[in-house]
Amino acid sequence: MAIRAPDRPAAVRQRRHRMRRHLVHTLDVKASPYAYVAPFFLLFSAFGLFPLVYTAFVSLHEWTLLSDEHRFVGAGNYATLLSDEYFWNATVNTLSIGVLSTVPQLLLAIWLAHLLNRPLRARTFFRVTLLLPNVTSVVAVVVIFSQLFGRDYGLINWVLGLLGMEPIAWNEGVASSHVAISIMIMWRWTGYNALIFLAAMQAVPRELYEAATLDGASSLTQLRRITIPMIRPTIVFVVVTSTIGAMQVLAEPLLFGTYSVTGGPDRQYQTLSLFIYEHFTRLDFGYASAVSWMMFVFIVVAVGVNYLLTRRAKGSLT
Amino acid sequence: MTRRLTYLTLVAVAFFSALPLYYSVVVASRDNAALAEVPPPLIPGGNFLANVARVFDTVPFALALVNSLIVAGSIALAVMFFSTLAGFAFAKLPFRGRNALLLLTVATMMVPTQLGIIPLYLLMVKLEWTGTLYALIVPALVNAFGVFFMTQFLSRALPTELLEAGRVDGCTTWGLFWHVVLPVARPAAAVLGMLTFMAAWNDYFWPLVVLTPENPTVQVALSTLAAGYVSDYALSLAGTALGTLPLVAVFALLGKQIIGGIMQGAIKG
After folding, report:
1. Do the chains contact at B202 and A37, CB–CB below 8 Å?
2. Beta-carbon count within 10 A of A174 CB
């Protein structure tokens, strides 16, 4: 006892020290991963999810920036909405532009990816030029195309004139403005989606194609029978993201021709996002929020329908 | 025959991809009188600098360029950092709920957050951030795409033995991140940084909502230029050329790496 006594405090200290180190180490290993992924979840909750959910709350009120009092109106905004012909006009425009821009775009993108998915000279050059439009900002795209689609001095009408056709007032008609806006969207996104498809195609085993070639299958048959079934998950993904994107088109109709929150004097090309923005600029936040929620429902439905369609197409293609 | 058709198609696509950009340079370097002629001018003229001078007279374009540099630069740096950190955890650190949280991260990419823009604006009013660059930078410091992108890369490129060796040498998790993960992550993080920079530079709707024309980003300034009552295409396309073509040129030079990055991020999509 007497001999060991002086040693004891040192031993205890050492053990405590080791225990503390062990504790710190355990804490480090257990807690660090959560700390590292936390910034994303915190930020998304605060600036992504919370506003989206809070939209529902705002939509039940008469809410403007001018007054701090927000009168509860229940479903009042929604009732107004359902009988608002401008709302339905914007809905139809959104669907029309959505279909016109997305369907040809995705078919073209798959075909381009198919062309690029073989040994080619100047591969990088083709890929880079394909993506140039996507690097161009949406504002720039609309400004550039507004000039190209100009009625009097636009390049497109000049070419049409060379072909003996009458000039078209692109931003005046409903159909012509939808076509023009769809072309802008297609120009910006086809190449990007083609590259996404190409990435998926490159993961398809080569042997499948070699065997098909031996069997004498043409390139088109190979695309339909091998490529498309093999990259189906990517197709579903692109269809879903394109649908969400198409439902939220805003800058194109806002800036096409001349800047107008109504999408042309007769609302020929006002989309739902633009309709929301119009009411936002009037500080009518309650109503704009109600439109947002309706749009959310539309998006969920559109995504669901397209998801099922893309999944089901399996039967007819394989 | 089919080979020739393939090249012909791809050349045509390349042509139509580049044509609008080329023609915007033509318009930007002409005066409006020349643009009203028939046939329209098809090659650049000598009026570019005069048009650019008008751009700086019409909108605070120098301020817009500085603002966009600050916003896109800080967002890109932050996204690179936080995405690598989270990607490291998801790819290499075992923890309860890891797969579920990763799935949740990917799922958030499908949430149309643009629909929450009104409460987001109200939030910025409360924080007194409207009209300031904070409103653009803070919500964008990290995003799901970046986290997923770095997770994909690190789970492939970061050898587990390297991490174990680091542990044996007494590295803390933070030490591992700093000394082992960051050097390995550098090439992918650089690609992510470039993609993020471009996206932030081109972002339009949220800056339009939350900023004022007096303190704009490049895209907001460009839309102010385009919003005149009379369409002055020489003016607005000179601004467009100035505000977007440098980025397009950088992309054309570094395109190979960036495209590799986009395609890698897409594979599991």
Report:
1. no
2. 16
The span from the CA of A208 to the CA of A215, in Å, is 11
The total of structural domains in chain B comes to 1
The two three-digit tokens of residue A244, written as one number: 């969400």
Look at residue B98 and give its three-state secondary structure.
Answer: helix
Residue A22 per-residue DSSP state: H
Would an 8 Å CB–CB cutoff place A156 in contact with chain B?
Answer: no
Nearest to A193 by CA among A108, A122, A94: A108
3-state secondary structure of A247: helix
Locate the chain B residue with the closest alpha carbon to A250. Answer: B205
Residues 6 or more apart in contact with residue B44 via CB below 8 angstroms: B25, B26, B29, B30
Which residues make beta-bridge pairs with A71? A62
Tens digit of each residue's pLDDT (9 = 90 or more) over A51-70: 999 999 999 998 887 777 88
Count other C-beta atoms under 10 Å from residue B107's C-beta: 10
Query: Domain A84-317 belongs to what topology?
Result: MetI-like fold (1.10.3720)
- Closest by CA to A138, choosing from A257, A243, A250, is A250
Parent domain of B241? 2-266
CB contact under 8 A, A292 and B36: no
Question: Hey, of A136, A243, A296, which one would you mutate to test binding to chain B, going by the most B CBs within 10 A of its CB?
Answer: A136
What is the CATH classification number for the domain harbouring B60?
Answer: 1.10.3720.10
CA distances from B132 to A190, B68, B124, B216 (A): 34, 12, 10, 9
**pTM recorded for the entire structure:** 0.89
Secondary structure element (H or E) that encloses residue A72, with its range: strand A71-72
Average pLDDT for chain A: 89
The CA angle A142-B246-B36, to the nearest 5 degrees, is 45
Percent of chain A with pLDDT over 70: 96
Tell which residue, B105, B59, B63, has the closest CA to residue B82: B105
Q: What is the C-alpha separation between A144 and B225, in angstroms, rounded?
A: 13
Q: Residue A134 contacts by C-beta under 8 Å, 6 or more apart in sequence?
A: A188, A189, A191, A192
Q: Quote the pLDDT of residue B41.
A: 87
Angle between helices B117-127 and A50-58 (to 10 degrees): 100
A293 in reach of chain B (CB within 8 A): yes
d(CA A236, CA A308): 9
